[in-house]
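Case study 2.
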Amino acid sequence: MALLLWGCSPSEQELYDAGIKEMRLEKFKEAITYFDRVIEKNPNHTEAHNAKGVAFFEQGKWDEAIANFKVAMEKDSTSYKPYLNLGNAYLEKKAFKDAVINYNMASSLDPNQTDIYYNRGLALLGMEQYEDAILDFDNALQVDPNQALAHFNRAKALVGNNNPLEAINALKRSVAIDDTNGAAFYLLGVTEMSALNKKEEGCMHLKTALGLGYEDAREWIDEFCGTESES
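Prediction:
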């Protein structure tokens, strides 16, 4: 029996499933080995190329991830997944224009992929296209209104779009959902003081930001809040 099993060659699906199992265990190098074996058997196995790209992505190897996502895209231009993943890799590299192009392609191939909204919003924010970014964050929040980071980044876009009052509202929603985001408390405090001259509220939020480890708040507290920040 042992000799018989040794002689059996695993199928593409078995190798692919083994790679996915290793991915779930965060054994990305081992996963890539399995995906390579799948590709050796079938160079047109789109899912293996895409999954191999994801394994590189999870290791922070953006260029290797991009190369594999592009191969997957070439093998099957009708699947949204390689475009979405390619957009995410470009986003990590701060290649915002390339990210948006691929998010747009992913969305056109499958309009029901609502995860695209938030990530495309981040890319548009990076490009300082604030109105379009706000629209994407709004769409993301329609799907799930309890996304603290979506409210936070929407607020950054609103500040960039010269709408500090709505930005303050968005920041208050963000910190109500997640009271551990020092950057959100910092932006809330700075915006309250700069746009509304609300020193007491602003200082309170800046001190909360500093207490959460957001060191940029220290300078504002020392300069505008009347007492030295805690060391």
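Residues 1-6 have pLDDT under 50 and may be disordered.
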